[in-house]
Design a protein that fits this description.
Elements (H helix, E strand, L loop, with lengths): L9 H4 L5 H30 L5 H32 L2 H19 L5 H15 L2 H12 L5 H13 L1 H12 L1 H15 L10 H8 L14 H13 L1 H11 L2 H7 L8 H25 L3 H21 L6 H14 L3 H10 L3 H55 L14
Helix pairs in contact: 2-3, 2-4, 2-5, 2-6, 2-7, 2-8, 2-9, 2-14, 3-4, 3-5, 3-18, 4-5, 4-6, 4-9, 6-7, 6-17, 6-18, 7-14, 7-17, 8-9, 8-14, 11-17, 11-18, 12-18, 14-15, 14-16, 15-16, 15-18, 17-18
């Protein structure tokens, strides 16, 4: 895809509300809409396809989520390498095109196999947008402002989940997929006026080796830093992929006095994420520390996971959804986590890391769900979730606490 070259001064002069920030924000909005839509329409879509037993809906739902997340693992590597080799813009728009077409096709499925393979293709497409957008914004804003830029991207983006809930409820699951695909295709029209990162253009002119994914594994300290970046994001997907996606099952296990739906659980969780992403970005700027902001949110997340699993027995649905909202707020550090990953590495590997890190974190659901299912038998649904939550949160806290601070770091360098 043809893109325009940025002038050399662009990284120093782009404003918080430039075309780059707006397109990245809207791209993430559509990305989240499509990413979370399956969790919202899981039960209704599977019921219409002839799957009605509760256990079958749960197990096939987890299978389809794993297919989507498996696609994101593959797409994370593909788009990350392309982002460093071909440019951030080519990935930003190429990924939007792929997941938009896949989601339109998803509205026509009639079998589980069709559903599964299209979720895989959609996952590949969904893997590219956030990393490319965050990298582009981080490289195009002055270092003192880039935290605010990624905060705007996240705050606008996660609200896409609320639109997905409203559309899914108002228009049905098939139309919800059509609308999501249409939104993505419409977004491509905004590519006019968006420039490539000046840092990337300089690296390309200097013919620096770029996008070598394997180089992350050939240097011990670099590999350890990369793994730490991945592990910080796992608790968010434990919360969304297990606790919130399976909200109806947890509601029954906790004896909630009324019906709990996954759609409303997702809606309220992502409503909390809107405020959490704004708050985490703002706090990291005010404290001038990414690390302390992430530590704060991980501690808050651990507290709310405990409330969700052990403080809601016999609660009303209203109380249950309130906890989902607050739990969402505590895991509202997604864009901050991706920003930290981008800030830890040089220009020639930045898109690779910023794209693979969130997708490997999302892809952790592929490991979390079979572990969760395996432990449900001996531990029960609450005990299984507790074990996974404790491990993922402790590892994430250790990872962030041992990374170097990256607030205000100059990003114009190579690995």
């Amino acid at each position: 895809m043809q893109t325009s070259s940025a002038p050399p001064t662009l990284p120093k002069t782009a404003s918080l509300f430039s075309a780059i920030v707006i397109v990245a924000s809207l791209g993430y909005f559509v990305d989240i809409y499509d990413l979370i839509l399956f969790s919202i329409v899981r039960v209704k879509s599977l019921n219409e396809l002839g799957i009605t037993a509760n256990d079958a809906v749960r197990d096939l739902g987890l299978y389809l989520i794993n297919m989507q997340m498996g696609g994101m693992l593959l797409g994370g590597i593909l788009w990350g390498v392309l982002g460093d080799k071909r440019g951030r813009l080519s990935v930003l728009f190429g990924s939007i095109l792929l997941y938009s077409l896949a989601n339109i096709a998803n509205g026509f499925v009639h079998t589980i196999d069709q559903y599964a393979w299209l979720r895989l293709v959609a996952g590949v497409g969904l893997a590219g947008e956030l990393g490319a957008g965050i990298t582009l914004v981080a490289e195009s804003l002055p270092k003192e402002k880039r935290g605010y830029g990624t905060m705007i991207v996240a705050t606008v983006g996660v609200s896409g989940a609320m639109l997905a809930y409203w559309v899914g409820e108002a228009f049905g699951w098939r139309n919800a997929y059509f609308i999501g695909g249409g939104l993505g295709l419409a977004l491509l029209a905004l590519r006019v006026g968006v420039y490539e990162s000046g840092m990337f253009e300089q690296a390309r002119r200097e013919e620096v080796a770029r996008g070598n994914f394997l180089s992350l594994f050939t240097n011990g300290p670099r590999l350890l830093k990369y793994l730490k970046c991945l592990l910080i994001g796992v608790p968010l997907w434990f919360v969304v992929g297990i606790l919130i996606t399976l909200a109806p099952e947890f509601g029954r296990a906790l004896g909630v006095q009324g019906e709990v739906t996954a759609g409303l659980g997702v809606f309220w969780c992502y409503f909390g994420l809107v405020f959490g992403d704004f708050a985490s970005g703002w706090i990291s700027q005010m404290w001038r520390s990414r690390i302390r902001a992430l530590q704060l949110f991980l501690v808050l997340c651990a507290t709310l996971v405990g409330v969700y699993l052990y403080g809601l027995r016999g609660a009303t649905p209203t109380v249950f959804y309130t906890v989902c909202f607050i739990l969402g707020l505590t895991v509202g550090f997604w864009a901050l986590f991706v920003t930290v990953a981008a800030e830890q590495f040089g220009t020639n590997l930045r898109a690779t890391v910023a794209t693979t890190a969130p997708n490997f974190a999302r892809g952790s659901v592929v490991l979390l769900t079979p572990l969760f299912k395996a432990m449900v038998g001996p531990l029960g649904i609450i005990g299984s979730a507790t074990a996974l939550g404790v491990v993922s949160l402790l590892i994430a806290f250790w990872s962030v606490s041992t990374l170097p601070e990256s607030y205000g770091k100059d990003l114009d360098y190579y690995e």
